[in-house]
Design goal:
The chain is mainly α and 391 residues long. It contains 13 helices and 14 strands.
Length: 391
Amino acid sequence: MEYNFKELAQLYKNALLNDVLPFWEKYSVDWEKGGYFTCLDRKGKVYDTDKFIWLQNRQVWTFSMLCNQLEKRENWLGVADNGAKFLAEYGRDQDGNWYFAINREGQPLVQPYNIFSDCFAAMAFSKYALASGQEWAKDVAMQAYGNVLRRKDNPKGQYTKAYPGTRPMKSLAVPMILANLTLEMEWLLPSQTLEEVLSVTVQEVMGDFLDQERGLMFENVTPQGAHVNCFDGRVINPGHGIEAMWFIMDIAHRQNDIKTINQAVDVVLNILNFAWDKEYGGLYYFMDANGHPPQQLEWDQKLWWVHLETLVALAMGYRLTRRQLCWEWYKKVHEYSWLHFADPENGEWFGYLNRRGEVLLNLKGGKWKGCFHVPRAMYLCWQQFQSLEQA
């Protein structure tokens, strides 16, 4: 099947504005207590009222970002307001660390063990401050960003399970999210801080986590960037590696660094060749770099966010380089993703498929899936194809 850029731009625009956002506006907003319900079944019915801080902040970010990038719609700003005010009151402990989960009313359920709660808070309140003009939101964003910088070398702190000193490892997730977060907060940061953090994170991702021989992005390495021959040391998370590469492309494009853009595209293509399921199609969730049995029992599931981030990376990679392999892979991933994940009957996308591409969990949201990857990818792909169509 052949595609043209204008039709693709229209497809993503229509999906974002007339399908995905209306689904979350209609079913997820807790107007009574504040914040959002994310545990939604196929038709949008709430099946659990706990509130997970990652997803709460991500939804604030999504609606705030669209106010900033598209138009300041009153209903979008209202949705963002409802989450931001609830989170500012209930999302943190007395030391300013962001919990992992709270109940519907805002009482804490799970300790602030995870640095990504702080990351998404900084992202959310940065974009919310810009959309709303609320000065207090800037302070919340900067305080959360300070937490991230303080915790990045020991992300779980007192909550880590690892025994100190025996096998120290660092995770790709930290520098990749810090790179993206820092760009998101560009308008709030001193230019020197911005450039320093971007430089260090790009260097770390492309230096320590990228295996130069295989061209694959490893999930965990030693603090010096060496491989460790164990389960954690061999794990490849294709979605993370590919998502990290469009973050890198975004930064490199800003710096007019064509060499790094092409290097990132090479990595995306290498991961696709390594991780594409040649029998059933789609990308594996986890793989072992050396072909051993992965430790993750869900390794062969096909997940929504992995495929959406891949669509973004390929669309961006093609726009920036015009490399034909990006376009060929884009069409392949597009056909798989829209056929298997989209739910035209009830709106939004399914999140979890089995290896054969059949719906495994009949939900639209839960503890990990919320209003973030689908709308962000719809927006970004729309923008990429609109730019290509106008070129």
